[in-house]
Amino acid sequence: MRYLVTGGAGFVGSHAVLGLLDDGHEVVVLDNFSTGHRGAIPAGIDVHHVDLMDAAATNAVLGEGRFDAVLHFAAISLVGESMADPLRYFEQNYISSLNLIRACITHDVRKLVFSSTAALFGGPERDDPIPHDAPIDPGSPYGESKFMIERVLHWADRIHGLRSACLRYFNAAGADVAGRAGEDHRPETHLIPIVIDAALGRRPALQVFGTDYPTHDGSCVRDYLHVGDLATAYLSALTQIDERSVVYNIGSGRGYSNIDVIRSVERVSGRKIPWEAAPRRGGDPATLIADSDAFRRDTGWTPRLSELDHIVETAFRWREAHPEGYGL
User: Fold this and answer.
1) The domain 2-172+227-250: what is its CATH number?
2) Mean pLDDT, residues 171-196 taken together
3) CA distance 228 to 230
4) Residue 142 catalytic?
5) The pLDDT of residue 283 is above 80
6) Among 84, 144, 239, 292, which residue's CB has the most CB atoms within a 10 Å radius?
């Protein structure tokens, strides 16, 4: 099969590219490189340096040859930033996705797998673990922008026959088990690489944002999914949209707190990590844990790499070996 991966130079997208290549498929990457890295893309891959906000350029890529499906990762995705600048998130995420969806319809691409988010369930009144049919209550403009795209995909199927899988995943983490790719954000905002950098002496004492949540140790609890498990979930989702569109929550089904993550990095690294309590951040729910039972039942997928210490160990090895990320 031949697949287009938008955001294929980013953290999750680059691991999906590796998964597709390992499975024997042809891959084309589209990325504007605002946050992605060319070094994350394997040699020999056809790469288009294109911003999805450019409708004409996006349409040209989709028209260059037959694609069996699109895997859409490209987005801006910081909850806190979206709380400070909501209109940018609605503009960037919604319009860019609209351009892509329109191009897929124009060029008769019949399948799209969308990188959605657990931030759709950001409100305080909900159950954990969270099933895919839980009430939608975004706690941030970022989550709202993703839900708007899900609704566009719903109508694109009903009217134009573009079948989609919306995967609402919960904190991708870790690194490729073979060491081919890892996590490199500029600046880094994800907890596990930040804690690892503290262990490696690359940053000062950590701040834990909120230690008064109703959790086992007062810090936020999240469902961490190894990025390799997430890549295989995308491959599994492609098999579900031959006849119908689907929506799934994807996660490990286990919750780990911010302090649990610190303790895990201490175990893996053998180093003590200094940290201090800081005020809560706006838009952060106390707990986000996925109920992935529907996806597991329909596809047979199961996370195999997502025990916390294993996630941390793969991330630690990659980050220790690449002190400058993809710059080295």
Assistant:
1) 3.40.50.720
2) 94
3) 5
4) yes
5) no
6) 292
Q: Residue 189: what pLDDT?
A: 85
Confidence of residue 124 (pLDDT cuts 50, 70, 90): low
- The span from the CA of 173 to the CA of 318, in Å, is 12
Q: Which of 258, 190, 192 is nearest to 219 (CA)?
A: 258
CATH of domain 191-222+254-327: 3.90.25.10
Return the SS3 of 125. coil
Q: What burial class does residue 143 get, using C-beta atoms within 10 Å of its C-beta: 0-12 exposed, 13-18 middle, 19+ buried?
A: buried
Using the predicted structure, report yes or no on whether residue 143 has a pLDDT greater than 60: yes
Stretch(es) of the chain classified as CATH 3.90.25.10: 191-222+254-327
Q: d(Cα 197, Cα 128) in Å, to the nearest integer?
A: 31
Extract the tokens encoding 40. Answer: 């994350």
- Catalytic annotation, pick one of 142, 213, 234, 256: 142
In this structure, the number of other CB atoms found within 10 A of the CB of residue 199 comes to: 23
Interval 170-192 mean pLDDT: 93
Quick one: which of 20, 63, 61, 58 has its CA closest to 41?
A: 20
Which residues make up the CATH 3.40.50.720 domain(s) of the chain? 2-172+227-250
Contact status, residue 238 vs residue 266, Cβ threshold 8 Å: no
pLDDT tens digits for range 64-98: 999 999 999 999 988 889 999 999 999 999 999 99
Q: What are the DSSP calls for 298-316, one per residue?
A: HH----SS--HHHHHHHHH
Measured CA to CA, the distance from residue 276 to residue 180 in angstroms comes to 34
Cα–Cα distance, 6 to 4 (Å, whole number): 6
DSSP 3-state of 278: strand
Could you tell me the two tokens for 174?
A: 């870790």
Helices and strands in the chain: count of H runs, count of E runs: 11, 14
